[in-house]
Amino acid sequence: MAKKVQKSSFPLSSDACVAFIRRSLTRVMGWLILLVSLSFFTATYDSAHVKLTLLQIGSTILLTLWTALKITERKNPFPRETWPFLAPLFLYISWQTLSFACFPYKLEAAEEFIRLLMYGGISTLIACEFTVKDIRTLTKFIVLSAWISFIYGLVQVLAIWWPSVDFLLWHNFFAGRTFSTHANPNFFGAFIVFSSAIVGAEFLRTRQKRLLVLLGIGLIDLFFTESKGAWLAYGVMAVFFTFAYTIFLSSFKKHLVKINVIAVACLLLATVGAGIYSAKRFQSVSFRSYTWLSAFEMVKDSPILGTGPGSFKIVYPAYRRPQIFYIEKAHNNETQHAENEYLEQAATGGLVGLALFLWLFVFLFACTFKNLRVSLPAKSSAEEKDTKIYLLGYAAALAGLLLHAVVDVSVHFASSGLLLAVFVGTIVALAMRRPAAPDVPAENATHPRCLLFVRVISSLALAAALSYVCIEFTHILKHLALVGLGEKLLFALAVITFAGCIVGTGFIYLRIIYKTTRLWICILLLTSLPICLFFFRVFAANHYYSLGVALINLQQPYAALPAFTDAIKRNPFFTEYRQYRANIFATTLDLSKRFNPSLGDTDSARTDYDRAMDDLAFVHKHNPNHALLHQETGQLHYALAMHQLGLAQQDPNQAFLYNQLATENFTQAKQAFLQSLKLDPVNVNTYLLLINMALLRHDVQEAQNWVDTYRQGPAGVTEEEFLSRNRQNAQIQQVQAHINRLNAALGQ
User: How far apart are CA 181 and CA 153, in angstroms?
Assistant: First the structure.
């Protein structure tokens, strides 16, 4: 008997271009999920930056292809019957856009806002275009990602006892905690949670026993992440998945009670484990508690509109509790998110934004349960059965991810954020019941000569863009120093992956260019190239920034300056590059005027002081709450004042002028240091500089006041474990001894 072929919900158009674009959308989405989940590139300071670049370029390509598809089909992408399903997502994105438009420091927040729009676009694309067949393909890519990521996580587990098993350069970076290809144990924990739900659904669909092995490996990896939030999320996901399956999908009653008991036991075990490890590492609990208190203050000050998506890292430093500096043992903007997604939604989108965020996910789960409750007919098709199983798996994955977001920030990073967008779109696609798309008849080009000309121009532009990317990537690879088998293996994988992306993109674009009969499709593809190039230049900028940081660590500040300048040329919008360069200028402080483009000069000769002040002014304009910004501004004025005091001693005839200039710079330095203390009252270096300025003026009493202020500790800090650090600080004790000697010499 001939096998019955299931009819697709979306018949392919007779237009070959439409058919090719539809296939490309599914495969590009799948490869994007795989690459974002697994990619590392160790030439960048933040090795996970490549994930963000892949997300940005991949999203641009996907949305371009979708637009080309709709133009070719001449269809409204959002017919009336889809609006009830898409309205929660569209309202949420619209409110976030309004909130962003009202935020004054848009430049620094723009990257995260653009990422939010991309996530919304991906969710909408999947919801409107993907069929059950397409979702099967996506599921296979997610399962493949899990196989690779889980197995490497198991290698990291084995390396705890046999270090030689893991020969990659980041071995044991988190002191025995597994992180696989996700740059952070918590992010890996989130991936295990939601991918296990998808793997579980695929097992129910295929009954492949090797998927049970994969789930077991994931559980081992999860334990060694030591991610308490991920344990709890896994337990909740398992209970959600099991209960939903036994209530809605199970056709047999045997062992159902045992299955449910095991699921509940899993949750209880995760809860106990989380409690035990929280007691062992209570510092992480304290860190989150203080961060949540500060974020809550943000909500109270802007309860309706919020501060705008992407703004948390800019606004939060003005609210940050001093205890955070003690816990992090750092004085830069380490905390960029609230460690609680719902609190951050309230802080950045206001209570309205939080309500829309919650409504979106309540709506998704309501759609899931509504569809799961519908009984399948006796002779249901494979597509109908798969729809229910996938709804269960993707809804459970979403539930686990949302619970983990209560104590984690992974949804703000590409590896989890992309999958969150995929889950949203997939659930809507499975829940929506839309009419089949009509065929689009093939048609001849109306202006064949003009189309031929545009095809040639588009092909040449594509070749030029891909060539530029290859050349830029080659320059990046030149700076790599390959030591050991691990780095050589990563180098080979990077080259292969890069070549695959270039060839794949070129093939898809060229085939569409020469298959389409519409002039606007070629123009659309052409206009997407500068956007992709911009995002690649941002990636290259991150590399040159990393190179500059490495040169600073090697005590080569002069060599680092051109690297930071190259980073700024490729990404002139990121303030951290300028702040780093300004800090080096303050260290070198060459006051001779000269013109040097490698130092950022564009039209006139400048001193290092001028260059540093220009960079700091740019940072102050776009990110004024950065504590180190004000301290570095003060240090620059302090260094210049000390230089002027030296000139006063060398040239007695100009001593009065130099001393006056030094006094003015000391005054500006003090103002900057006082502003720095408002944001960071813990940094001992700020107090030492204020003490030194007081001693230079022979004001011993003011110096003693600053010593006493530091020893007393910041206002609001009552914890003895923190205050004891101030009282026992060796540098402050040395200063106190010096002040005591001065007082003794003065007879006080």
Answer: 8
Judge whether 297 and 343 are in contact, CB under 8 Å. Answer: no
What is the pLDDT, as a whole number, of residue 251?
60
What pLDDT, on the 0 to 100 scale, is given for residue 252? 55
Question: Which residues on adjacent β-strands are paired with residue 143?
Answer: none
Q: Which residue has the tokens 């950065």?
A: 626
Task: Provide the token pair at 659.
Answer: 């001393």
Q: Measured between alpha carbons, how far is 270 from 229 in angstroms, rounded to an integer?
A: 9
pTM for the model: 0.91
CA distance 494 to 464: 22
- Whether residue 673 is predicted with pLDDT greater than 90 in this model: the reply is yes
pLDDT for 537 equals 94
Tokens of 704: 């003693």
Q: How many other CB atoms are there within 10 angstroms of residue 282's CB atom? A: 11
Both structure tokens of 440: 């689009």
Rounded distance between C-alpha atoms, residue 184 and residue 284, angstroms: 14
Please report, to the nearest 10 degrees, the dihedral formed by the alpha carbons of residues 187, 191, 194, 200 taken in order. -150
Whether the per-residue pLDDT at 747 is higher than 80: the answer is: no
pLDDT attached to residue 273: 66
Task: Give the residue ranges of DSSP H helices in 226-338.
Answer: 228-244, 256-280, 282-301, 312-315, 323-328
For residue 745, how many other CB atoms are within 10 A of its CB?
A: 9
Q: What is the mean pLDDT of residues 348-370?
A: 95
pLDDT over threshold 70, residue 436:
no
Q: How far apart are CA 309 and CA 311, in angstroms?
A: 5
Q: Is the separation of the CB atoms in 248 and 388 below 8 Å?
A: yes
d(CA 655, CA 704): 29
Lowest mean pLDDT among 295-309, 429-443, 504-518: 429-443
Label residue 741 exposed, middle or buried (CB < 10 Å: 0-12, 13-18, 19+): exposed
End-to-end CA distance of the chain: 108
In whole angstroms, give the CA distance from residue 682 to residue 726.
8
Under the phi-then-psi rule, with left for phi > 0, alpha for psi from -120 to 50, and beta for the rest, what region is 467? Answer: alpha
DSSP letter string over 325-377? Answer: HHHHT--S----S-SSHHHHHHHHHHHHHHHHHHHHHHHHHHHHHHHHHSPPP
pLDDT in tens, 304-347: 999 999 999 999 999 998 888 888 777 776 678 888 999 999 99
- Residue that the structure tokens 């052409």 belong to: 526
- Reported confidence tier of residue 10, pLDDT bands at 50, 70, 90: very low
Would you state the pLDDT for residue 444? 55
Residue 679, Cα to own-chain centre: how many angstroms? Answer: 24
Q: Are 393 and 201 in contact (CB under 8 A)?
A: yes
- Does an H or E element contain 393, and which? helix 382-404
DSSP secondary structure letters along 229-242: HHHHHHHHHHHHHH
**Residue 293 CA, distance from chain mean position:** 23
The region of weakest confidence among 191-195, 334-338, 383-387 is 334-338
Give me the pLDDT at residue 267, please.
Answer: 67
Contact yes or no for 19/12 (Cβ under 8 A): yes
Q: What is the DSSP string of 572-639?
A: TT-HHHHHHHHHHHHHH---S-B--GGGT-SSS-B-HHHHHHHHHHHHHHH-TT-HHHHHHHHHHHHH
Please give the pLDDT value at position 331.
Answer: 76
Instruction: Please name the amino acid found at residue 50.
Output: V
CA distances from 289 to 295, 324, 377, 668, 676 (A): 10, 10, 51, 36, 24
Band the pLDDT of 14: cuts 50, 70, 90.
Answer: very low
Residue 624 burial (10 A CB sphere; 0-12, 13-18, 19+):
middle
For residue 594, the cross-strand partners are: 606
Mean pLDDT score of the chain: 87
DSSP string, 407-456: S--GGGSHHHHHHHHHHHHHHHHHH---PPPPP------SSHHHHHHHHH
- The CA R_g of the chain, rounded to the nearest whole Å, is 29
What angle is formed at CA 265 by the lines to CA 261 and CA 267, rounded to 5 degrees? Answer: 120
